[in-house]
Amino acid sequence: MSIKEKYFHENVVYQIYPRSYKDANGDGVGDIKGIISKLDYLKLLGIGIIWLSPVYESPHDDMGYDVSNYYKIHKEYGTLEEMELLISEAKKRDIRIIMDLVVNHTSDEHEWFIKSKDVNSKYHDYYIWRKGRKNNTRPPNNWQSNFSGSAWKYDKDVDKWYLHLFSEKQVDLNFHNKEVIEEVKKIIKFWMDKGIYGFRCDVINQIYKTSLDNGRQRIFLTGREHYLNQEGNHLILKELQRDVFSKYDSMTVGETFRVDFKNANKFLDDELDMVFQFDHVNVDRFSVPLFKKKYRPRKLKKILFNWQKNVSWNTNYLENHDQLRSIPRFGDEKNYYLESAKMLAMLTLLLKGTPFIYQGQEIGMLNIGTDNLEDIKDVAAVTVYNLLRKLLIPHRLALKLVNTINRDNARTPMQWDKTHNAGFTSGDPWLKVNPNYQNINVENNLKDPNSLFYFYQKLIKLRKEIKALSYGNFNALSTSGNLIAFTRTFGEDEYTVILNLTNKKRKNPLFLRGEVILSIYGETNYEDKKHLAPYEGALIKTS
Ligand code: NOJ
Known about the structure:
This protein is of the alpha/beta class. The protein folds into five domains: about 200 residues, TIM Barrel, CATH 3.20.20; about 60 residues, Oligo-1,6-glucosidase, Domain 2 (Oligo-1,6-glucosidase, domain 2); about 120 residues, no CATH class; about 35 residues; about 70 residues, Golgi alpha-mannosidase II (Immunoglobulin-like, Sandwich), CATH 2.60.40. Helix content is about 30%, strand content about 15%. The protein contains 17 helices and 22 strands. The protein has an eight-stranded parallel beta sheet with strand order 13-12-11-5-2-1-15-14. A hairpin with a 4-residue loop joins strand 8 and strand 9. The longest helix is centred in the middle third of the chain and has 16 residues. The relative contact order is 0.10. 1-deoxynojirimycin binds next to loops.
């Protein structure tokens, strides 16, 4: 299928988690000035778009995914003027910014919610307030929150319950109310008019709750059939596209939990430009995310190929602020740290779709883990820990389980150099810096021509220069499940990618004639190569 060429087809997105990127004022929390000071670094890397996780005013119960004012900047991050400066400084460097649109819920400290407690105010209907069952003593239905436990909280002043699909401080908005939709349009316009390029739309496939009936009993997320991927949700997104996004040269990416490629395509028709799916990052999880299962490369491959074949424009990512770091998950941190990191970079950058890389991924940052409960800042991890303890799971085991989902793992401060606190802050960092920063940091990467940073830089550059790598068709090649091979074709040009997903030497089933454009092991000929080394990867111009 041919695609109308757009900026987001050709450019790579880099996600910044502002709290942890760079602290300019020494208060231990990253800020906008800090980000501005690193724009030249991002330019050097070659990315074209920044996805900025929420910077709005917020009590930071869920680190900004709980917005108390959509028109103000969170005070620890800076001011509106600084945000405008960031947009214009980025523009000077040909970098566009997308923001996070977090509108499934607001913070309970948002003035709409505070006013909504007056049942006679129009704001009461902005949220989902209901009387409970059993004479108001039990929640209105059996739905569960994403962070575990009931999705309802009783408020004694109102004498009703409100719905929160995430933490108690993240209150779900009522998208049956037209005024709520108008408020969302206003927010989008406000920021688009400030010159941003679009939005990553947080949990956007669950904003419309079709009914509040009891859900089918499940181990995880009871109730979800009433609000995931609903028809009413599609109508709202079409309306936002028609009334707002279509008036701008814009990009939208939806975070869509639990979509398969059939309903993903529905979102792509005339609603969003692309969606984040989670099949591939759930490859090592049971349906209850707390339980890990062994990662099997062949499964990852099957999932990725299915999405490539069935969706015309994908998002390609392995990391973000909610996921564990990718090298320990899909690579081999101990024995093939650099090789596996490079292989994962090729996977992310060479599949068809917009690549998203997460801060620190380009220098190979790793998980931190913790054996100290007090260190955990992630509200989801803390909630799950408390639940496990209630279920009488001993502390050590509960902590061990929680470490496998603790989102702090990917949120530790960016590692800039070897100096105190990795050059992130001169103060006390809000979250512990990973002690491996002496080795893994930007400074070291920039000194070493063979580093992961320069590998990403090279891939980003190739993807920009070679049309087949951005717009080209994707065609799967058949190999064993331990390898991934595919071509990208555009006109007469054909490029072949072959990757060994494992830490073992593998037979090379393909004899690839042509110029080697990139090879992790520096090979120059793949025509008579009988084996692929652990995590070996190559890009070859095969015609
Ligand atoms: C998805 C975000 O990525 C995550 O960080 C957040 O906790 C939830 N949505 C709720 O906003």
